[in-house]
Every structure is written in structure tokens, then in C-alpha cells.
Amino acid sequence: MSTEVASPPTSNTPTTQILPLELIEKCIGSRIWICMKNEKEFVGTLLGFDTYVNIFLKDVIEYENTPEGTKQIKLEYILLNGNHVCLVIYRSSVIIID
Amino acid sequence: MSAVAPSTTSASGGAATSNNNNAQFNFFKMCIGRPVVVKLNNGVEYRGILEVVDGNMNIVMEQTEEYLNGQLKTKYGDCFLRGNNVLYISAQSKK
Amino acid sequence: MEKRDEGTIEEPLDLIRLSLDERIFVKMRQDRELRGKLHAYDQHLNMILSDVEETIRVVEKDEETDEEIVKSIKRKIKMLFVRGDGVILISPPLRSN
Fold first, then answer.
1. Which CATH number is associated with domain A20-96?
2. Candidate from A2, A60, A83 with C-beta closest to B84
3. Which domains does chain B have, with CATH numbers?
4. Tens digits of per-residue pLDDT, B31-73?
5. What is the residue range of C62's domain?
6. Mutate to test the interface with C, among B73, B79, B82 (most CBs of C within 10 A)
7. What family is reported (chain B) (predicted)?
8. What is the pTM of this model?
9. Mode of pairing for the β-strands spanning C68-82 and C87-91
10. Gap from C79 CA to chain B (nearest CA, Å)
11. What confidence tens digit (pLDDT) does each residue in A42-78 have?
């Protein structure tokens, strides 16, 4: 049983399991939405990332929740530290209700 | 199962890493010697000329200005920022 | 490795290396600031400082008027070990070059 389970990856059959980072890799070049552990959010075009999920973005909008409402900051290129990243969402997979 | 799965992980993950380290490397190369904005997790912003960065996101900047809530607080000639506090490094493309 | 030009900065920690035996400014978490002479450091930014002046900023709320009072508490310490994880920023004195 265990050998059968182990065989697929060694042959060239397509992998049935998608790894989390592969999913992010598929988003390269598209708009993504990043939620941080604190209230902060970022939307931008994904240019690259690494195994720590440090994220390299272009044409970014930073959304900061302040007591006076949501503040938007526009940034051209950013390298976002992966340390506080909580969610990475493919932008077109989001239905915005509002 | 467990013996095989990690190997696929490292294969695809490794490829992704080399590409993306490149992307990061390009970003650093693009930014060095140019004005950048570094934002820390506590909300403080540092504007200055980027001198050097390492893998921990430790940063050295020149002519650094410290901004808190958009207000200039302090200036430093050279300054070292410890990477764990860094939220992002931001740059603008050449105009 | 050690033969490279002493004055150049190739990685961020080189700035700290160039500040050895100089007075540096260290900004720490929780509004703490240190000024002192740097004797030693490591890759975590653990540091040994001497003749340190520590400034702590404390915000106190006046119970009656609800006013916030910012207090700076200063003290001097002869020799100090700083644990690296509390460090936010290090600034050396102005370099001549």
C-alpha cells in the first residue's frame, strides 16, 4: 500500500496535490490581496516571493485601518516582509459585497 | 509517502526560490543608492538612501529621516535597521 | 574574508563593525533609547555598551484632567549588555567619508 502511494511522484504523472507555494507561484503577474496579522492589507501585482513568503509587489495600495477610517497609501514597488503575512488571496477570486 | 512528498516539495519549491530570489535581488539592485521608504511594524517610516540590505532584511540607509504619522521626527546620518521590525521596503522606478 | 577593505560596507552589519569603539545611538522597543560606546556585538545585535545614558519615555495620564504627560526618565549605566531582539535602530556618529 505504502509503495503504491509513494510511486506517483517518481513517475511523471501530474501531481494531485498542489503545494501552497505553488498556488502563490501561479499568481505571479496578477493582482493579489494580502492580509497581514495586524489590521493592515495590501493589494498589488505579484512579481515574486520566496520560501519565507517575503513578497515583491508592484503598483501597490496599502490599506491601513485607523480610528478615522481606512487610509490608503500608494506605493510603486515594495518588498513586503513575510513575517507578518497572514493571507494571500488571488484578487479575481474575491467577490466584493459593498 | 512522507519520504517522497518532501522531495517534490523541495524540487518545485527550489525552482520557485531561485526565480524569486532573483526577483528580490533585482529589487535590491534597483534600489541601492536610491531613495527608499522603509516602514516598520510599529508604523514608523524611514526615508533615505538605501545603502545595503541582507537576507534578514537588516537595512543600512544614509541621510535617513524618521517620520511618525507623516511628521518628521529625527534625522540620522547613517542608520541601521534591524530586519525583524521591517514591514516593507518601498521604491519608485526611475522617472 | 577579513582582508577586504576595512572602510567599505558590503552587508548591513559592516556599519556596526565600523562603529566599534565609537559612541552610538540605539533605539529600542518600548520607547527606550541608549547612547553609549560600543565594545562588542554579534549577528543578533546583542551588544556591550559602556558609559550608557538610557532615556525612557513614559506617558502618564493625569487622572483629573485626562491630560497625557510625557516624561523622560534618564539614567546612567557604566556597562550594559543589550539583548538584540529589542533593538529597532542603530545610528553611529557621522562618518567622515
1. 2.30.30.100
2. A83
3. 25-91 (2.30.30.100)
4. 888 899 999 988 899 999 999 888 888 999 999 999 988 888 8
5. 12-75
6. B82
7. Belongs to the snRNP Sm proteins family. SmF/LSm6 subfamily.
8. 0.76
9. unpaired
10. 22
11. 999 998 888 888 899 999 999 988 888 888 888 988 9
